[in-house]
Amino acid sequence: MTTPFSDLDQYIALPRVDGIAISPDGERVALTVSVLDPDGTGYRRSIWQVPATPTVDADGPTARPVRLTRSAKGEGGIAFTRTGDLLFVSARPDADATDADAAQLWVLPAAGGEARP
For an engineered disulfide with 108, which of 8, 74, 86, 96 has Cβ 3.0 to 4.6 Å away? Predict the structure, then answer.
């Protein structure tokens, strides 16, 4: 039986956490997770949210990780504001941007809704 730790290709393909930020209220943790891209030449990053203190019942965890972002180019540089909004850097397309390939700072409101530059 092989495991991801006994095969280099499987090991390289494991998702990895490469960024972490804790919300000011201590309730949420934002993680940047890198996953090997389909052609195996680089990593794509997305932002996930997990509860800081997970609760477990007989069926397992009651709160699951939630993926917050999806873009072809990925995201990184996560941080929370004092009010709990999540800041991140992304080169995702913005209809109002003059340079479509430039990375910029985005904010994801704590109260919900879409991210905006």
Answer: 86
